[in-house]
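Thread: "does anyone have the structure for this chain?"

Original post by V.I.:
We have the sequence but no experimental structure in hand. Need at least a predicted one for the grant figures.
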Amino acid sequence: MKRKVLLLILFFSLSACSLFSQDTIEQPDTVPDFREELSQRRTNVIKTNPIALFFGCIPYYTAEARLVNETVVSLYQSVYFGVSYLFKGPMLLIAEQDTAYNPDGIKTRVTGWRVQAGYKFYVNGWNQTKRKKMRGLAPRGLYFSPHISYATAKLYTNYSKSVGVYLRFNFFNVDLQAGYQLIAGKWFALDAFTGFGYMKNDVIYHEKASSYQIDSSEDGYFYNSNFKIVFGFNMGVAF
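Reply from O.Q.:
Generated one for you, tokens below.
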């Protein structure tokens, strides 16, 4: 009987030692993996759209130098802000050189700015294990995003500016976007998106102390509709 008790004690002692040894072997294998993922994650993306340098957010009139910054704020969520400088677009520049459209050869100037902001919810954060959540800190994959944007620009000539006469374009929109952000290699980011929402685009004529809104219904979809369709992309650097 005593021999059986001793054998049982010895058996459980060996089993406990075996479990303990397995824990000490497996634990170092998992910790470096987490550290490696943390060291390789990308939590910030700076991006732009080179096409906007030719076709800006106010069609026919502006080009846009855009800069957007996206920052991870929690697992699978990020916030982004963008600022843009607006200037004369190539379509307006070409129209001014057309003598049929501009027989007097009038040269206009365009200056303005744009701000935008949004919040992203990355779908790849759903139904993931705790281990894979570490990769979710990188802003990549399919996402949904509420988005808001406001742009304003002034069109004038050197003479009209001196007498206080100019056109003011005010573009405001709120929309819901869906997109996919790819991070390739160590730093390249490509963000493609689409969506729909509400827009209110106004053209206002200013003359000294007075102003009134111009009927721009003949200028196409962007000036006579409140329904906004979004389609675009940005590209940049992740770090």
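V.I.: this helps a lot. The chain is about 25% helix and 50% strand.
O.Q.: and The domain at 41-238 is CATH 2.40.160 (Porin).
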